[in-house]
Amino acid sequence: MTSVTSPVTGSPASGAARVPSFAVISGAQVQQALQGREKEIVDLVEATYRLHGAGQTVNPPSYFLRFPDRPTSRIIALPASVGGPAGVDGLKWISSFPENVAAGVPRASAVLILNDHDTGYPFACLESSIISATRTAASAALAADRLSRTRTRPARIGFFGTGLIARYIHTFLAGTGWSFDSVGVYDVSADSAAGFCGYLRQAAGAAEQAGQGGRNDSADQAGRITVHDSPEELIRSSDLVVFATVAGEPHVTDPSWFDHRPVVLHVSLRDLDPRILLGSANFVDDVEHCLKAGTSPHLAEQLTGGRDFLDGTLDDVLTGRVEPPADRTVIFSPFGLGVLDLAVGSYVHAEVARAGNLHVVDDFFHELRRYG
Q1: What is the residue-wise DSSP string for 209-254?
Q2: For residue 371, is pLDDT > 90?
Q3: Please, what is the average pLDDT of the chain?
Q4: Torsion angle, CA of 133/139/142/148, rounded to 10 degrees?
Q5: ∠ CA(370), CA(371), CA(372), 5° rounding?
Q6: Which residue in 174, 111, 134, 108 sits closest to 48, CA to CA?
Q7: C-alpha span between 54 and 56 (Å, rounded)
Q8: What is the full DSSP assignment across 126-164?
């Protein structure tokens, strides 16, 4: 794992630590540090999952701030600590205001605070909507690869929901070697579906210009894109289904739509009726985190009174403790762990610092003398 460049140095003689500098890292800097490094980030996310599975992280429950006057909106705090060589603590503070979309403003916004391992002082504030989308997409790409290794690699992908997260997931799949015979698209908003199709064609054209050619040829890629009229059409025609919606409760209820046994990346967590999960093999990122807050796995637990429907975690698959079945639908439901945000944020901080581009706020910490 890439280690964070510590802004704090201790005095070997006295053991006293110095107050760190404090830097602000913009979204443009975050994007520059991460762009084109999909394989590296997926490896980083895998390493973090392994640290989490080995008990070398602290990842408390997320805290939800909800508003009686804005029931569809929320702000979530994700505190976390990553051990190992990264050695960083911190907090992601991410808001979800779905009504923003109608006004042409992105639904989610976020900041990430990184705290020094030794002193606890915050040393960086990063724009984090890009970090959040990146770690989500890297997790999805990792799961798609590991959960499909016991079957023929999926060649038909379907995106149910076509916002920022869907775009990042497609980017990470393409950036880690995936190619598809067909790309299906479904969204309740025709404008969103059309915009996502435009992105797909643009991405295919960029791949062709970069010399990838072959199955990524832009004309072929555009011809393989299908906007479906119904959720059923999308799901039945896809071997790999990506749910990236803002649904607050299950809206896909018919288990027969999954009779062809696809791999399902249930990123938005609340799309599937619990009966669909009960007929499938189920993997999560963290059991205690995922089975709460009205997620589909949480509803399945409430319906059955137990957790026997869970087959394991992604770390169980990574370490070989559990092998995903080839003869059943496989569903990955990731709650989203704050430790992943910290790992990616630390990576960004290290890259920006290495390039000498940290925007340090001088004298951010002012009252530093105990008695004035």
Answers
A1: HTT--GGG-HHHHHHHEEE-SSHHHHHHT-SEEEE----SS--B--
A2: no
A3: 91
A4: -110
A5: 100
A6: 134
A7: 6
A8: EE-HHHHHHHHHHHHHHHHHHHTTTSPPP-EEEEES-SH
Return the SS3 of 151: coil
Q: Residue by residue, what is the 3-state secondary structure of 295-306?
A: CHHHHHHHHHCC
The whole-number pLDDT of residue 9 equals 36
Tokens 């896809």 belong to which residue?
238
71 three-state secondary structure: strand
CA distance 182 to 205: 16
Cβ distance 346 to 112 under 8 Å?
Answer: no
Read off the DSSP letter of residue 16.
P
pLDDT > 90: what percent of the chain? 81
Q: d(Cα 260, Cα 253) in Å, to the nearest integer?
A: 16
- Tally of CA atoms within 13 A in the half-sphere of 213 that contains its CB: 1
Contact predicate 300/274, CB 8 Å: yes
CA-wise closest residue to 59 among 281, 229, 271, 289? 289
Question: 88-96 and 70-82 as β-strands: parallel, antiparallel, unpaired?
Answer: antiparallel
Global confidence as pTM: 0.90
What is the rounded distance in angstroms from the CA atom of residue 329 to the CA atom of residue 326?
8
| CA 348 – CA 358 distance, rounded (Å) | 11
Q: What angle do CA 178, 143, 216 make, to 5 degrees?
A: 10
pLDDT of residue 197: 96
User: What local confidence, expressed as pLDDT, does residue 219 receive?
Assistant: 38
pLDDT recorded at residue 14: 40
Which amino acid type is present at position 54? A
Better-predicted residue by pLDDT, 214 or 353: 353
Q: Which element (helix H / strand E) includes 206?
A: helix 190-209
Tokens of 219: 């004309």
Q: Given a cut of 60, is residue 317 above it in pLDDT?
A: yes
Matching residue, tokens 């039945």: 236
Asked if residue 221 has pLDDT above 90, the reply is: no
